[in-house]
């Protein structure tokens, strides 16, 4: 086993709310979809893109297996030739686990994120981004197959998804649908005041700015101009939809303005406290690599397909 240095730092802020303050190309019917076929083929073997593997694992609700290696690691090369590409191993990939190889030299950020100190190291990760099990060092084919047999148990843990109950009646949604049919973001509060001063200040309907079909209210024309010059800087991530529901349940659900959190300077909202806590326990997993692929209710939130999610 060979030593690799590690370092990781995360910063999260809980946002509190004072209650008294006022073109995806679709395949032709009947014709094979080459992209879908390629996707199936990819998950039946070792993948090489962490983000792609993560997205597929979330979509299929399967554990993600991260295999950390390096070209100069002798034990890694031995496992490569005698274990990892054997049919008995490949048959498990894509059905009980999504597996990705991660070159330690090319991805120091993942080495740091997962605290890898020796190679090879394997980390099983659930659909909430939490580590389920870790194995360090090389092993034989027999022992490796025994390791993979534990995947079903790991899968049971990985499939414990966050609650998708509807928003509590005592909470106020980030996105308000008005009788006239238009949608108001951030519950009518000014996103500029929230981002610049972290204050909840009601906007005025005469000062409205629209971004991706969502209206935001402001205190003054100056605030509105700031917003229109750089809307992505001020709007909540996903316009206030819950990133945990998006990642785990593949649904867009409106978060509550009372349940906010700031990560890397960006504002997130959640449907319930359980989801906020899940996010705070592993914010990078939920905040980074967001995708609308496979979203069950994309038609209800058309702005998500137009957003730069990362």
Question: What report would you give on this structure?
Answer:
The structure is a single chain. The protein has two domains: 127 residues, Glutaredoxin (3-Layer(aba) Sandwich); 131 residues, no CATH class. A hairpin with a 5-residue loop joins strand 8 and strand 9. With 310 residues, the chain is α+β, with helices and mostly antiparallel strands. The strands form four sheets. The protein has a four-stranded mixed β-sheet, sandwiched between helices. It contains 13 helices and 13 strands. The longest helix has 11 residues. Helices cover 32% and strands 20% of the residues. The two termini are 35 Å apart.
Strand order of the largest sheet: 4-3-6-7
Helical amount: 25-40%
Low-confidence runs? 4-11, 18-39, 157-164
The topology string of helices and strands comes to EEHHEHHEHEEEHHEEHEEHHEEHHH
Number of helices: 13
Query: What is the number of beta strands?
Result: 13
Shape: elongated
Summarize model confidence as the mean pLDDT: 80
Structural class: alpha+beta
> What is the makeup of the main sheet?
4 strands, mixed
SS strand fraction: 15-25%
